Amino acid sequence: MGCFLSKRPKHTAGYEDPTLLAAETPFNVSEVEALYELFKKLSSSIVDDGRIHKEEFQLALFRNKNKRNLFADRVFDTFDVKRNGVIEFGEFIRALGIFHPNAPVESKIEFAFRLYDLRQTGFIEREELKEMVLALLHESDLVLLEDVVETIVDKTFSDADTKGDGKIDVEEWKEFVSRNPSLIKNMTLPYLKDITLAFPSFVVTSEVDD
Amino acid sequence: VAPVAMNAFELISTSQGLNLGTLFEK
Asked: How far apart are CA A35 and CA A30, in angstroms?
């Protein structure tokens, strides 16, 4: 067994300058630095490589690295802008920025649309909506008769698909959310409002304690 | 609320997989 004399690098690959990330997001520099501590914790829970793997994301969300869920998969994939199977620091901060209470509502609505556009066709299709309802019921151990599920999906679709072409485009989605603002309630995390106060334990003196 | 009267997206938004708040819990 050898011992490591060399000092670990302060930042892992994929690290981005907090000043630049703060300029692009509702976070200030110290909040980005605080979130880096959370990111380090999440990204080292299974594989310590400075990137959040899907299993690490599942572990953080469900306390179980093997618990898969359609919606967690979609959140992960929507964070993973580079589509390389991992969430890097910059991706993490930019995506979380959308969940900030001060982020523009428009960006929350668009993010939700991307989440629900399962096959990334630019539309939410009826089959996708039904698949999500079934996934939610399965996740919640709820059983509904097939025709009840069809009724829920049909009713929602007839409300949202105002053009009546069998799919919900982003304009219809925006209009639908404006009529039903509670649909994007889960796109705001109040915790992010002042993360350095809410999570003082994340604020470590990483820049000065070395 | 009877599920049949619910908006499907409202139902979906209750998914645990969409609740990122858990990331911030110790």
From this structure: 9
Give tens-digit pLDDT for A105-127.
999 999 999 999 999 999 999 99
Locate A13 and state its tokens.
Answer: 């690959």
Give the rounded distance of the alpha carbon of B19 from its chain centre.
7
Residue A112: closest C-alpha in chain B:
B13
Q: Chain B residues with CB inside 8 Å of A136's CB?
A: 11-12, 14-15
- For A:118-137, CB contacts with B below 8 A are 129, 132-133, 135-136
E strand spans, A86-204:
86-87, 124-125, 167-168
A55 with A96: CB under 8 angstroms? no
β partners of residue A53: A86
User: Nearest to residue A156, comparing CAs of A98, A116, A109, A105?
Assistant: A116
Is B1 part of the contact surface with chain A (CB cutoff 8 Å)?
no
Strand partners, A125: A167
Distance between B4 CA and the closest CA of chain A, angstroms: 5
The ipTM assigned to this model is 0.87
Q: Which helix (H) or strand (E) holds A98?
A: helix A89-98
